[in-house]
Amino acid sequence: MKLRWKFFFILLMFSLIPLGILTFVSQRGTSRMGEVISEDVQQSSSRLAAAILKRTAENSAAILAQTKKSFELALAGLAHEAEAVFAEDPPGRVKVYFATDFEDPATAPPDAGPQAGYMKKSADGRLKNDIVSFEHPVVVLAPGVSASDAAGDIDRLTLLTDFFSEIFTKLGPALHWVYVSSESGAHISFPGHGGYPDGYDPRRRPWYLDAAEETRWGLPLVDAATGQVIMTVSKQLRYPDGSPAGVVAMDVLLTEVLRIDALSSFWTAAMQSFLVAPVFNAATQATDLLIVAQKDYQTQASSWEGAIRSERLAVEDPGKMSELTDEIAGGRSGVLEMPYQGVASIWAYAPITPKASFVMIVPREVTDRLPEKTVGAVRAFTAESLLTTALTALGAILLAVLAALAGSRGFTRPMVELADASGRLSRGDFSVRLSTRTGDERDQVIQAFNDMVPKLEDQLRMRESLQLATEVQQNLLPRRDPCLPGLDIAGTSLYCDETGGDYYDFLEVAQDRTGAAAVVVGDVSGHGVQAALLMASARAALRLRASLPGSLPEIVADVNRQLTDDVGDSGAFMTLFLLSVDGRRKTARWVRAGHDPAIYYAPEPGRFEEFAGRGAPLGMEKGVAFEEQRHADLKPGGIIFIGTDGIWETTGPQGEMFGKQRLREILRTRHGDSAREIIHAVTQALETYRQGVKPADDITMLVVKIL
Asked: Which residues of 539-691 form beta strands (DSSP E)?
């Protein structure tokens, strides 16, 4: 055999052995990577789809519930104004417009005219814009009641016109009508309009008969003329002696409120949403789900359609249907899988009122589309990589014959990079990219790999988006400490998880606008997103209520009633300590709602006191009475410390709690420092005591130092 052939075979052998080993390792690594990624994506994406859909329903319901609170607070304010008007002597007569005045342009108010969003049927059955006035309300008298008989109530009710306009300005287009009716049969509605039927008696209407001392929401109804979904919220009015005075009510356009549920997800186009109400069926002795409104994202992605005819939400699985009905009737949220119209689907549900719930349905084939597409891409890439590896090996053999070791080394470099990148990707490094360009078929493998990585990274970003709740909650805490004469105030909240139920705030109390500081510390039971949502709801309710007239016990009692309505059946509750300090007068007033007493330290004579008092936690019982406590002799240099139990229940490596005695010793030794320095000292002491042990509870502290 000639030398050149021996050299040929030697080169070929030394080329094939390392190339064979490299090819084998690359194939095994690529195959294993495809298997691991495919299995993980298939499992995690399916769970993530159900979790995201459930969270979407709950978040939409939570936002709607918050919107509902705004209407409830506005109605409470209107009721307060109306009761004040009924308690006064009637003023002098003013110009009023009755319903019949709106039927004739000659007698209608000067500003009356057709208004978009206010529709009525004409004589030929067509819809047209109603004649409405936003400057003058309309007065309607019940049958048998003359204008002279109800003159006093008419004059009183017209005093509410400015308040009506203010409510419409604040609440926006979701507010459709607002009206007040007296026991005498006088009825005033804003904006002013005609079209009342003959014999209209407001005292015989369901919203009047069902009204109670607390705000009450009626069942969602569909306007037969316009198809708009309306809910009425009402409240009973009383004279100073306690006798019934009338009812105040609002009509809320759910078709406007529900616009907030505009979702953005890759399965939205196939989603169907329903607003349902549980209704007892006497014929079957079971509870049905009555469809009040529905939304098909494929045909009407921006609007809701009211169900004019009584239609029940039907499913093909009686057992699952019973489970869904029980969950909705119980005011719970969740997610389950069952068919809808013969298609396997995921159902998510969440309550928006005690009488209505959201139901969102997405076909299972749609939620599985993304993981299936991703898995298909991974498998296709794996197959392509294996094929390309084989072709590259053959090409390397031919190249080795011609270029020997130099060509072999250059040929195998991209495969080495691919194997390394595949290993990094299998370990979760989504920043890996291949930049080598060869000018041959291997570029297809490189491009396929680079195209696949962002798609897998998108899955990671979807998970990271769920952590945005942490940033939202942090923005709810005060951004800076208040600056008030005679006081040094500072506070902080440290959460053991991404979100928590502790919070503190600085308030503007309507009756304390004389330089006094109003601060609050709250602690919601539990941790996580549920506690954070309740905290945000309580914060909003407390801020809004504090801006209205009322004493500290009244503020806390009103917030308690709202929270009890929202979470009374869930077992969740919240402790709260509301404190008002006057730095000039050196006085303090507080209300304690199940929270640990505040600690007060007076340097002279070096004595500790507790700001205690009776009061149950919020959200457990609606009719709880709260007491205001006072301290009339705050000493300069004195410290008021309000904290949550996460401070003294902090445990060290041996399981022993930090305790309140250690906290008092810090306040005694650091009483000369500023409020912010005292908080820093307590925080450092807790970190030192834990010695690296993860905190088991949220920590919130607020310090008020008397200057």
From this structure: 574-582, 587-593, 598-602, 607-611, 629-631, 639-643
Domain 469-706 is found in CATH 3.60.40.10 = yes
Assess contact for 185 and 144: CB atoms under 8 A: yes
First to last CA, the chain: 106
Token duo for residue 249: 């009510």
Distance from C-alpha of 703 to C-alpha of 668, rounded to nearest angstrom: 13
What count of other Cβ atoms lies within 10 Å of the Cβ of residue 69? 18
Domains in the chain: boundaries: 3-55+369-462, 87-216+240-245, 262-367, 469-706
What count of Cα atoms within 13 Å lies in the side-chain half-sphere of residue 198?
0
Report the run of H or E that residue 536 belongs to, with start and end: helix 528-546
CATH classification number, 262-367, choose in 1.10.357, 3.30.450, 3.40.30, 1.10.3470: 3.30.450
Give all strands (DSSP E) within 644-706, no chain letters.
Answer: 699-706
pLDDT in tens, 615-624: 899 999 988 9
Q: Is the pTM of this model over 0.70?
A: no
Q: What is the per-residue pLDDT across 468-500, written as a single tens digit (0 to 9) for each?
A: 556 766 788 898 999 888 999 999 999 887 778
- For residues 567 and 541, is the Cβ–Cβ distance under 8 A? no
Helices (H), strands (E): how many in the chain? 14, 28
3-state SS assignment for residue 72: helix
pLDDT (0 to 100) of residue 581: 95
Closest CA to 602 of 645, 629, 631: 631
Tokens of 525: 């039971």
